[in-house]
Amino acid sequence: MYLALARKYRPQKFAELIGQASICKTLQNAIAMNKVYQALIFSGMKGVGKTSSARILAKALNCEKGPAIEPCNACQTCKEITDGNSTDYMEIDGASNNGVNEVRSLRETVKYKPLKNRFRIVVIDEVHMLSNAAWNALLKTIEEPPEHTIFIMATTDFHKIPATIVSRCQHFEFKRIPFEVIKQVLKNICQKEAIKISDYALYLISKSAEGSLRDAKKILDQAIAIANGDVKDDDVIAILGIIDEVTFITLTRHVFTQDRKGILEQINELIERGTDLRYFYGEYLRFIRDLIVIKSIPDSEKLHNLNPENVTEIKKILKQVNEIELLRFFNAVKELDQTIRYTENPSIILEYMFLKLSYFSALVSIEDYLKKIRDVKPVAPAASMQTVSRPKVEKAPDMDVDAEMLASLKEKIEKEKPRLASVLSSSSLKLQNDVLHIQVAANFENAWKMMKENKAYLQQTLGQVSGKALGVEMIIQELKPEKQENKLVEELKNDKKIKSLKDKIKGNVISIESVKGDKDA
Q: 86 with 117: CB under 8 angstroms?
């Protein structure tokens, strides 16, 4: 009878346990120091080695050459536990034995000493399925188990175990196994089984297992069966129901080349194949993410999820776009997440999305457009367009040249000394007789000081901009004397008699007006 890969290549030693190095080390140290806790909880997702660890621990404690940090797997005790024939090793399914009567029966069993081994090991799988009454019946036994009994409880839903039980047990949390590790394990299995399989197919299987080594072995078993020998990429894609990467590449090429007919034909082909378009949308979003990684990171082999055989072609397609455009693509696709999830016609939304993306390459960013405007120089009207002769107007010499030079001066200072440029913009500038006159407002003493401190810099910069030596002269405006009328108003407001009258009648001074009397007055 055929033995499944998950059972055939099940770990038999701590050294063979994949991805749980810290747990193995802790258990081995506890065995070496004779400090193994009598109630253990192994929690974690399916297929990461919880039950395998329980069996290895049971063999290590009861091995005829032990207790040892590694079981020999050669003695009678180890073989019996491996084959499931040991009378002192019990594996109980918590889902089907979850009642109080089963737990009471278990309590009666563990009272007696083991028949052959040093310890009786009781493993309760899926322990979170026990009823409340069963937990209550088990509570006292777990708190004070017999010296010769060790309880190991395995669960995929740790949060469902009552806190009173957790507080009496030592907890080990099993981690997800990285897909690179799973991929290497599957590769070793294929070498032992003399099966040819590509790295991309191994990658797809490892990624789809989502951290479960048992699931990965099960998928590999199925791929071997459907291929009837050597496993092909198409076989794995068919089993997993994933979308071929070539479809994404073809659609993206149509988008970049603005081949809108090709886009619609490709989507129609997906519909005819019966592809789940919502699933396709999510996978394409991940595909764009991988494109961004390839475009923006030079050495990104381990950072993207694409078939290495397609990367060269993808890089050729990406030459016509930059990182910012790809980010814009990603945002445009992500914006339709809720829409495509709840729409009744995902095909229409997908067509709209890809057609919209096909117009992106023709768009110009605001920054590029502004730069383009700045670079355009005004063109003088052609002589042929001047039908009316006008009298020549005398212009101030070099007026346009002076204005352009002062603009260049301000721009240069703004880059090098922004604060000085701010002060300069609030001042009046005038170039006359090879001297730049800078007039500062009367109340701007700080600006005046900054101008004086930077006079040498201003003169040097002016020379660089103009190409010749020019002088700099700074002038501060004088404060205008207050008008006589204002002084008279202030004197009247402060007059003692007027203040006294204001206090008596409880009034306020609203305005002061001068009244001219008649000649007879």
A: yes
pLDDT over 50 at 386, yes or no: no
Per-position DSSP letters for 189-201, written without gaps between them: HHHHTT----HHH
Say if residues 9 and 172 touch (Cβ distance below 8 Å): no
Confirm if 258 and 358 have CB atoms less than 8 A apart.
yes
pLDDT at 521: 44
Lowest mean pLDDT: which of 113-127, 225-239, 346-360, 382-396?
382-396
Contact assessment for residue 134 and residue 93, using Cβ atoms and an 8 Å cutoff = no
Helix (H) or strand (E) holding 42: strand 39-43
User: Rounded CA gap, 6 and 11, in Å?
Assistant: 9
For residue 293, pLDDT over 60 is answered with yes
In this prediction, residue 326 has a pLDDT band, given cuts at 50, 70 and 90, of: confident
Q: What is the Cα–Cα distance from 107 to 412, expressed in whole angstroms? A: 89
DSSP string, 340-389: HHH-S-HHHHHHHHHHHHHTGGG---HHHHHHHHHHPPPPPPPGGG--S-
In degrees, rounded to 5, the angle at the alpha carbon of residue 324 between the alpha carbons of residues 323 and 330 is: 90
- Say which residue the tokens 């949390």 belong to: 173
Contact partners, residue 140, CB within 8 Å, separation at least 6: none
pLDDT tens-digit series, residues 433-464: 778 878 777 666 777 777 777 888 887 887 78
The 10 Å CB-count burial string (b at 16+, else e) for 38-55 is bbbbbbbeebbbbbbbbb
Q: What is the mean pLDDT of residues 283-307?
A: 82
H helix or E strand, kind and range, residue 125: strand 120-125
The Cα 479–Cα 464 span in angstroms is 35
Cis bond leading into 67, ω under 30°?
yes
Reported as type and span, the H/E element at residue 494 is: none
| 284-287 long-range contacts, CB within 8 A, separation 24+ | 284/248, 284/251, 284/333, 285/330, 285/333, 285/334, 285/337, 287/245, 287/248, 287/252
Compute how many other C-beta atoms are within 10 angstroms of the C-beta atom of residue 420: 19
Torsional sign, CA 490, 495, 500, 505: negative
Spatial contact of 122 and 149, defined as CB atoms under 8 Å apart: yes
- DSSP H or E stretch at residue 91: strand 89-93
List, for residues 88-118, the tens digit of each pLDDT value: 888 888 877 777 888 888 888 888 888 888 8
Query: 365 near 373, Cβ under 8 Å?
Result: no
Q: Is 135 left (phi over 0), alpha (psi -120 to 50) or beta?
A: alpha
* Percentage above 90 pLDDT, the chain: 6
**Nearest Cα residue to 465 out of 431, 422, 428:** 431
Distance, CA of 249 to chain centre = 23
Mean pLDDT of 13-39: 89
Q: Which two tokens stand for residue 199?
A: 């790295």
Residues in the chain: 521
